[in-house]
Amino acid sequence: MSFITSAALAETGYVVLSPLASPIDPAEWLGLEYVGWRSSGVTRFAPLASYAGEIECNGFWNQTPPRTDKDGVWIASQTEQAPTLTRLAQEPGVNVGRCRVIELQPNTYADAIYNLHQDDNNRLNEDGTGWVVRSYVNLTDDSDSLLILREDRFDPATEQRLPLPAGTRMVVDTQRFWHAVWHRGSTPRYSLITSLTSGPELDAYIAENDGTPHVESVPIDPALIEGARLEQHRRIEERRRAFEAQGIVMEPPVELY
Description:
Layout: E1 14-17, H1 27-30, E2 35-36, E3 43-50, E4 73-74, H2 76-79, H3 83-90, E5 96-104, H4 109-114, E6 132-138, E7 142-150, E8 159-164, E9 169-172, E10 178-182, E11 189-197, H5 200-208, H6 222-245
Antiparallel strand pairs: 1-9, 2-3, 3-4, 3-5, 5-11, 6-9, 6-11, 7-8, 7-10
């Protein structure tokens, strides 16, 4: 199938924009209503836009009638609490699907590597329409935490590690990458995540905000990488055996999502 994509993401699959010029009042995300939803670790989500304007996080393709991750319905009770976050999500001027604030508890590098996953943004997306990607705005100051992107789930050589200080803004093709966050803080991390439709309008927004597709990957200890690789495979095998004990035969690797 052929989709309209954003040229800015063609080379590396991600861009980092200029950071936010001013901080956002934490009351905007702390006052939202959250629901439990599995992602890259122990997480909850506060939806600002969902399939039908309800406080839930399910994929639009799991709804009736099913559709791709576009045309999200804004939730008045949430957007009234978070006007700045809502404005940021709408700022690119493109179609928005799901829009949510994620709350992530501290984890380890091994946790993040085990929880690497690809998003399913474009299920049911129609041929000739815009490819859905994700924007991130890091709300809390998590300077030691890292967004991990891998082209190959099991190959550390394909790994890019991007820092997450407060105000960091990115656009990422999260269906291209296996990704997760290694949150090295002591308190929860909060980030605004929005599904955006690719095309010239998104490219214009990226250019206006000095988007760059090249950011130096943060180095970490090779021994830590090797330890996480071994732990990743150990946990996957443990999960496979747990399924097998229930009579469910799954060939490794077992997909997490």
